[in-house]
Amino acid sequence: MQKTVLLYFALLLWFVVPSQAQLTLSLPQLEAEIGEEITVDLTMENADSVVVTQFSFRWDTDVLEFVDTANIIFHDWQPDLESNLMQVDSGYFVIAWSDFTFAGLTLTEPTAFMQLTFKVVGEKGDSSALEFSDNPIPVIAGTVAGEIPTIINGWVKIPGGTSTTDTKEFGWEIEDITPNPFQTTAIIDFNIPRTEEVVWSIFDVSGRTIFEETKRYNAGQNQFFLEQQILPANGTYFVQLRTADFITTQKVDLIK
Questions:
Q1: Strand order of the sheet with strand 247-254?
Q2: What distance in Å separates the CA atoms of residue 94 and residue 83, rounded to the nearest whole number?
Q3: Mind listing the pLDDT tens digit for each residue in 124-135?
């Protein structure tokens, strides 16, 4: 009952309180060797009085073996024991916290709110996505300022080899952005290994989502045209290509 009331309160705030900042949850992009233990920081920034946090987190168990969690900064909050679910053998877990004092958590700078330790168990050339997922429960970060979170997922790669999960073998990559910097139109050349939907997202340097589009592309080499009209001002932006199995982000500069 407490969870239902709290989530209702947080969702109500999203509709009645104007957004003051863009809450961002992000994950790193790492390279690691076979047998190495790595620490993955789950990072939050631009948070203004967060009172509810829940998410699903996923990884590839053929590449990463879960070891432990550490440094959870929500230690004074009440965990939702009905939702918290550790299915590490299946490559995911679900976590939910609620601040029933409504004091909230404020983080202006990028801060690791939780750390995960994995052992790298894949083969050379393998890679694993690190992702905040909506399966089995969606990502929610309710705040008194009404921010809706931007999600920037990451990955872990094992250098070398020709494993079947190697991104270049499969063709998931942004080959080039030309020109960069650009004034009117930037052409983004990219490859995907099969016909599928691609989600394009563009973020500013604060992590705020400027643009998002989903489009179906054929397997092989394709192009995406980035027009300056969709960007609000000169500056640096981050272009993200995301599919069901891969995510990559590159920087682009606009000079009008």
A1: 209-217, 196-204, 235-242, 247-254
A2: 7
A3: 888 888 888 777
The one-letter code for the residue type at 105 is L
Task: Classify residue 188 as exposed, middle or buried by CB count within 10 Å of its CB (0-12, 13-18, 19+).
Answer: buried
Three-state DSSP class for 91? coil
Looking at residue 156, what DSSP letter applies?
Answer: E
Query: pLDDT tens digits, residue range 45-102?
Result: 888 788 888 888 888 899 999 998 888 876 555 544 444 566 778 888 888 777 777 7
Distance CA 161, CA 180 (A): 31
Q: Which two tokens stand for residue 97?
A: 């916290």
Q: Is the pTM of this model over 0.70?
A: no
Between CA 153 and CA 26 the distance in angstroms is: 6
Q: Which domains does the chain have, with CATH numbers?
A: 2-157 (2.60.40.680), 171-254 (2.60.40.10)
Q: Which amino acid is at 146?
A: G
Task: Respond yes or no on whether the N-terminal peptide bond of residue 136 is cis (omega within 30° of 0).
Answer: yes
* Bridge partners (DSSP) listed for residue 182: 254
3-state secondary structure of 6: helix
Q: What angle do CA 40, 133, 54 make, to 5 degrees?
A: 80
Other C-beta atoms lying within 10 Å of the C-beta of residue 233: 8
Tell me which H or E stretch contains 54.
strand 47-58
Q: Residue 41: in which H helix or E strand, if any? A: strand 37-45
